[in-house]
Design goal:
With 115 residues, this protein is mostly beta strands. 0% of the residues lie in helices and 46% in strands.
Length: 115
């Protein structure tokens, strides 16, 4: 059974930083491209970043490019998302996912950015 558990979200002031963690089990993490998504209240699920398992490349939504960094530790089957220079618009529930549509995802971790 695939399990995805996100953690690390909290309230932070604008300009602050956080690191989100996605702990996984039940599948071959090292051979899996992984994704981060987010969903703000009243809005649709938004793709944030991708970690490509084959190439090692990372891809980002324009809204977070230059501020967020996706990384992974294959030995620990764990995915990370470093969030820097946070803005109020980054407030959302953040999910990690095993698919590019975000259909298989964890319950999420809440990030709130406000003064």
């Amino acid at each position: 059974e695939v399990q995805l558990v996100e953690s690390g979200g909290k309230w932070v002031q604008p300009g602050g930083s956080l690191r989100l963690t996605c702990t996984t089990s039940g599948f071959d993490f090292s051979d899996s491209t992984m994704f981060w998504f987010r969903q703000a209240p009243g809005k649709e699920l938004e793709w944030v970043a991708t970690s490509n398992s084959a190439s090692g490349n990372a891809y980002y939504a324009d809204s977070v490019k230059g501020r967020f960094t996706i990384s992974r530790d294959n030995a620990k089957s764990t995915l990370y998302l470093q969030l820097d220079s946070l803005k109020p618009d980054d407030t959302a529930l953040y999910h990690c996912s095993t698919d590019f549509r975000g259909r298989q995802r964890g319950q999420g971790t809440q990030v709130t950015v406000s003064a």
